[in-house]
């Protein structure tokens, strides 16, 4: 029994596990508060552990209406979390509990959004093989990324004119120039203004580190938006030597910790 599972048996009243009609219980809000404490405690777990614990929580609810509420609360918690790997758990909840109709959303629009969220993010979750896509670099050469050449890869999607992208570009360039890790860097401009792209690369992505192999890419296959879930920029990924995604939705601080 894990610590979180033991905690759940203390926090979640017997009414949930016994199948009583908790939706009519005046203490329902207390139960929901305890459930949210339980979900928050899962944030410190690995992805497989969190998936197992959330399944336990939902399946332990005997009342069907409250089970729906438990599944929705769990889905929202992990979808809205900024902790890396939370997307995995949100997609897992959708696949196991909503796509199979074991639980339902009250709002059909939220179901549609959850279905789209899972569809967009499914191929680029932690632990997935990084999708291999073709692009054109700033010299006009075609290449497929990541290389899977025995080195880690940074895959960075950005837009010209995006303030957050500018910050990530500046801090990432500073970090790479200062620490010189052995890594392949793929910067991918998501727009179509060629002159602006070349100017941005020259000014904001001036990386001279000797061990960093830099490849400045543009648009290429529009499939990148779906393959890597690029619904907004910036998007920063780290891929290991075997082509597996080990960092997702990173900032420069998180990237530096994973590279150390």
Q: Can you lay out the helices and strands and say which pair or pack?
A:
Blueprint: H1 3-11, H2 14-18, H3 28-41, H4 47-59, H5 64-80, H6 86-98, H7 108-121, E1 133-137, E2 142-145, E3 152-158, H8 163-179, E4 183-189, H9 194-204, E5 212-218, H10 224-227, E6 235-239, E7 245-247, H11 252-259
Helix pairs in contact: 1-3, 3-5, 4-5, 4-6, 5-6, 6-7
Task: Provide keyphrases for this structure.
elongated, 260 residues, seven-stranded mixed sheet
Summarize the structure in words:
Helix content is 48%, strand content 15%. With 260 residues, it is α/β, with parallel strands linked by helices. It has a seven-stranded mixed sheet with strand order 2-1-5-4-3-6-7. The model is unreliable at 1-24 (pLDDT under 50).
Spans where pLDDT lies below 50 across 5 or more residues: 1-24
Q: Report the helical percentage.
A: 40-55%
Structural class: alpha/beta
* Strand coverage percent: 5-15%
